[in-house]
Amino acid sequence: MAEKITVNGVQHDVPADPRTSLLDFLRYHLQLTGTKKGCDHGQCGACTVLVNGVRINSCLTLAAMHPGDSVTTIEGLGTPDHPSPLQRAFVDHDGFQCGYCTPGQICSATALIQEIALDWPSDASEDLEGRIAATDEEIRERMSGNLCRCGAYNNIIVAIRETVDAVAEEDRDA
Amino acid sequence: MKSFDFQRAEGLDHAARLTVPDTAMPIAGGTNLLDLMKLQVETPETLVDINPLGMAAIEDHGTGLRLGALATNTATAVHPRVRSDYPVLSRAILAGASQQLRNKATNGGNLCQRTRCYYFTNIDQPCNKREPGSGCGARQGIAHLHAILGTSDQCIATYPGDMAVALSALDACVEIASPGGNGRNVPIRDFHCLAGDTPWRDNVLEEGEIITAITLPAPVRGRQIYRKVRERSSYAFALVSVAAIVDIDEGIITRADLAFGGLAHKPWHDPAIGDMLLGQAPNYALFDRAADALLAGARGYGENDFKIPLARRTLAAVLAQATGVEL
């Protein structure tokens, strides 16, 4: 029986050629072209996806190493009619110019929100064991694996900070 | 990428039997190996996926801590005991790479990562590490990332990682499974090699050996600092880094465990530097003498000459921070 990999809730066979990166599997085998190939060497972050909820560079892993895993791409986060809160915020705040890095930015920031909620420290954190506040400095450090050649960083940070704050407020109200 | 055969390890023995240096290589996180395979710097005929072996636990080990080889860098950096008892290790890991890479990269793989020397990663250039006997492009080339301590005529590459620098200050041990069911423990300070006449050799792993864990000794008293100097403030390799565990009692230094990154083919640890600080009252002149000892054998290669004063100043800054001395 062929091994399966789940992408946005749908099961697919793991590709036969072991050289297939997870990125190429998504783009060329499944035609999920939202995930972008920038550098293909883990430097730009355009290929960022969530594997079992964890953000990774899909260019630097083989699809064959993910049987049984669940992958979420930008297509799995929201749609034009029903965008995720981050997708909405990126539009509201012009968090992009050309848009090529945007799917990676949004997948990355989706995980960032969880990481801050878990109080995972970063290189920018004063205290390794305290509560983490989503300051601009924290967001910049945590997003350093996602490059934007258009330089839309300021608006990207606003979009992320606003979404983190909204999620925190929802949690408080819940 | 050249084609290869893909195998899943069914156990440590199975993995050891399948593994042949340069020909059949284990893959864990893959963030460095796959990068090098795309560049055809590494061209294994077989990849042995060791992820099915588990080995991802982080657990108490006597009064110390045992970090599974396949635990991710992130899982290690955010582990409550690492954060509270070994903060220099959390800091060093968090100072390296990006969150995406740390989420995939493993502790064992991190120790085995290759140098980022541009001549090593470009197959059109000479490199004694990649192609023994082909020469060293860096010695008279672009060398601003390169080593100033323990260099050889053959190779001036640096070990690029941060985690192992902290592990060296912490006096950690690498737990290794050897073929035939035996194992051995190698102190991290002896795990990586100087380039010498065998620049292709990064560490002491022998054929069929696989790292299973890293063990940390019991936590010690003192201030723990990891200071990394780099060309941008995030997601860059160290020009110079210092991992320090320093304790003071009644104005006298009672512990000074120091290790340095970015300076050599391995995390640099020289017990003489710590020893000369012990029993002394901290002051700038003392820090400068410690730097003299560190840099006595230092040699620049033009573009990296700046590392000599940079290492001196970084060490002084770290010791000042650790001891509360104003520079």
Q: Can you walk me through this structure?
A:
- The complex is a heterodimer of chains A (174) and B (327).
- By secondary structure, chain A is α+β, with helices and mostly antiparallel strands.
- Helices cover 37% and strands 11% of the residues of chain A.
- Chain A has helices at residues 22-29, 74-77, 85-92, 102-117, 136-142, 153-173; strands at 4-7, 10-13, 48-51, 54-57, 70-72.
- In chain A, strands 2-1-5-3-4 form a 5-stranded mixed sheet.
- In chain A, a hairpin with a 2-residue loop joins strand 1 and strand 2 (10-13).
- In chain A, helix 4 (102-117) packs parallel to helix 6 (153-173).
- The radius of gyration of chain A is 16 Å and the shape is globular.
- Chain A starts with a strand and ends with a helix.
- The model of chain A has no long low-confidence stretch (mean pLDDT 96).
- Chain B has 327 residues and is an alpha+beta fold.
- In chain B, 28% of the residues lie in helices and 20% in strands.
- Chain B has helices at residues 12-18, 33-38, 73-77, 80-85, 87-94, 99-104, 107-111, 163-169, 188-191, 271-277, 284-295, 307-323, and strands at 5-8, 24-27, 46-49, 58-61, 64-68, 173-177, 183-187, 210-216, 223-229, 240-249, 252-261.
- In chain B, strands 4-5-8-6-7 form a 5-stranded antiparallel sheet. A 3-stranded parallel sheet of chain B has the order 1-3-2, with no helix packed on it. In chain B, strands 9-10-11 form a 3-stranded antiparallel sheet.
- The longest helix of chain B has 17 residues, at 307-323.
Provide a compact summary of the structure:
The complex is a heterodimer of chains A (174) and B (327). Chain A is α+β, with helices and mostly antiparallel strands and 174 residues long.
Task: Going across the biggest sheet of chain A, name each strand in turn.
Answer: 2-1-5-3-4
Which protein chains are joined by the largest interface, and how many residues does each one contribute? A-B, 36 and 36 residues
Residue share in β-strands of chain A: 5-15%
Helical stretch count of chain A? Answer: 6
Helix content of chain B: 25-40%
